[in-house]
Amino acid sequence: MIAGVDVIVQVVRTSWTKRSRGGLEAARRNAAPIGFVLPTTRAPLVHEVFIEEVVGFEPRGLIRSELAASELVQLRLEDGLLRVQCPVTPWGMPRRWRRPPAVRLALGGWLRWQVNYRFAGSCGGDWSYRLDTVNVAHGPVVLDVFLGVPTRHVDERAGLR
């Protein structure tokens, strides 16, 4: 993380296979939250939540007090604003040749960045799918901050076959 800066990151990663592309399983998947109540508001904090088909879309979490150089989110302080960029995995489809620019968050703001993927052959040769929702808050927050409406929203979700 960035030393001396109040930053809270929550990553919600939902994953599924073709079994959950339609019907009741798709309804369960689509009902999965994209924001959760934080376990603490003490920054720096990384709260990762995994929602996977293999466990019936039951959320399970992981808490870290620091985010190393990561594939999840890139953060930098510039002129008092928190610059946030969410890199995409090179393994997922569709390819994203044109990406949105980094978002700059003022103190007190928060961002929700969403991107989805299709992966070939990762589940016994079948395609698998993933939705990453990255919630980032700059400054002091309340526990339920990510249940509200973000200051900024970047939606990179694409149609997945």
Account of the protein in words:
With 161 residues, this protein is mainly β. It has one domain. Helix content is 5%, strand content 43%. It has one helix and nine strands; from the N terminus they run βαββββββββ. The protein has a six-stranded mixed sheet with strand order 3-2-1-8-7-9, with no helix packed on it. Strand 1, helix 1 and strand 2 form a beta-alpha-beta unit. It is globular, with a radius of gyration of 16 Å. The relative contact order is 0.25. The model has no long low-confidence stretch (mean pLDDT 89).
Number of spatially distinct domains: 1
Determine the oligomeric state from the structure: single chain
The spatial strand order of the largest sheet comes to 3-2-1-8-7-9
| Number of E strands | 9
User: What's the end-to-end separation, in Å?
Assistant: 36 Å
- What sequence of helices (H) and strands (E) makes up the elements? EHEEEEEEEE
What is the helix content?
Answer: under 10%
What features would you highlight for this structure?
161 residues; mainly beta; 6-stranded mixed sheet; 5% helix
How would you concisely characterize the structure shown here?
The protein is mostly beta strands.
Q: Topology, pairings included?
A:
Layout: E1 7-17, H1 23-30, E2 45-52, E3 60-64, E4 74-78, E5 81-85, E6 103-105, E7 110-123, E8 126-138, E9 152-156
Parallel strand pairs: 1-2, 7-9
Antiparallel strand pairs: 1-8, 2-3, 4-5, 5-6, 7-8
